[in-house]
Amino acid sequence: MIKDLITVKPETSLEEAIEILRKNSIRHLPVVKEEKFFGLVTEGDIRKALFSPFLKELTVSDIMIKNPITITPETSLEEAAILIYSYKIGGLPVLKDKKLVGIITVTDILFAFIEIMGILKSSSRIDLAIEKGMKNFEKAVNLIKKAGGEIISVSMGGELKEKKKIYYFRLMKCDPDRIAKELEKNGFNVLSIIK
């Protein structure tokens, strides 16, 4: 979550809020006064208000979401992602004892996913079709490790007709050809190798 927050007060003018969003390249403005969380203003809320004939008189409190969906610091990343997806929102204020301590956005969750998957690290990838069952998966993992592969992450794709699932093994940069040969020698179907 983002802890170093840019906030506005309920009486902040809409024009000032627009300038704060532009200047800081952000899309969410928590509304706080005397450390109390009042609501949330999003770029979308402001866009809707731009056509109001009373634009110059409007304040943040006139358009803010007064009871936005919030989470706590203890909420898991998965739960936060599900809430954002389910409610089709761009971010969630994080409250502890009704006090704003952060905000988590779609971008933060995407970054965490990329970090967990090791996508930006220098890596290799081996895609395998593995027969369903934990024993087959564990056997593949053990063979990869035995052949010198260090697994960063594993993700699953679709299923093949012959009751096999596709697994994508992201490995620390290595010689994936050697590992693939070991897997094939033990009956695994290597679909592709990315060096």
Major sheet description: 4 strands, antiparallel
Helix-residue proportion: 25-40%
Q: Oligomerization state of this entry?
A: single chain
* Corresponding CATH architecture of the largest domain: Roll
- In what order do the strands lie side by side in the largest sheet? 6-7-5-8
Q: Which geometry do the CA atoms define?
A: elongated
Strand content: 25-35%
CATH topology grouping of the largest domain: CBS-domain
For CATH, the homologous superfamily of the largest domain is named as CBS-domain
> What is the total number of structural domains?
2
Cα separation of the termini: 33 Å
Order of helices and strands: HEEHHHEEHEHEEHE
Query: Number of DSSP helices?
Result: 7
Mean pLDDT: 93
What radius of gyration results from the CA coordinates? 24 Å
| Total strand segments | 8
CATH class of the largest domain: Alpha Beta
Give the class from helix and strand content and strand pairing. alpha+beta
Low-confidence stretches: none
